[in-house]
Amino acid sequence: MRIPLLAGNWKMYKTVGEAEALVQGLLKEVGTPKDREVLVCPPFTALYPVGKILAGQAIALGAQDLYPAKEGAFTGAIAPAMLKDVGCTYVIIGHSERRQFFGDTDEVVNRKVKVALENGLKPIMCVGESKPQRDAGMAEAVVLDQIKAGLAGITADQMATIVIAYEPIWAIGTGDTATPADAQAMHCAIRQTLTTLYGSQIAESTRLLYGGSVKPDNVDELMSQPDIDGALVGGASLKVNDFLRIAQFKQL
Fold first, then answer.
1. Rounded Cα–Cα distance for residues 126 and 124 (Å)
2. Is residue 252 part of a domain?
3. In terms of Cα–Cα distance, which of 96, 118, 94 is closest to 106?
4. CATH number for the domain harbouring residue 192
5. Of residues 37, 95, 97, 187, which has the active-site annotation?
6. Terminal alpha carbon distance of the chain
7. Phi, psi of 158 (to 5 degrees)
8. Active site includes 187?
9. 227 lies in which domain range?
10. Does the active-site annotation cover 167?
């Protein structure tokens, strides 16, 4: 059985004090969920203080990116061991904003997935198409090519800790959301591709998240789709009540 994962990507928001207040607010109400996993991914500056608050609690800690090397002279970069050191268990890799603004190619995404795994971090590998690509009927081909390239050289055993997040670029931060049927269709195609690559057992156990303007008023319908196993949430994860409602989704 796939345990739903509700992950908050805080992007470049929240000072240390604001991050501490947000996570303390979440902890007051989230309880101890038995049938789902809740994760927050603050900016790098807040990882250490937030990690101290979350130690032993019901919310997991993740990072928004890493550099694909153990250590070295890479000014401004963050090593995987540094993330582990402050309590991270997950790391987001290949988010469309990393691809668009920082030049992360499929090859870079693949390297980051591998170094995350080598250092005991669970990758959340993001894929998604642009509006022009969807309008041209290329959405599925683009996404499945990103899947294959991002997972190149990844073994079936390694897939056990990888999460895949489908985030249509045109729905990120725009207020537009793929319809539940559209999101389900893409998730189904992804799972079929994983079946081809790794077999049905691995494909059926891999968690697939949806991201792209997930909000309290659409999470229940999205989470009721058979191949959607969670959400990677942007803006709504910055407000205690909104993210709590998403984390406490009800399947219809």
1. 6
2. no
3. 94
4. 3.20.20.70
5. 95
6. 18
7. -65, -30
8. no
9. 5-247
10. yes
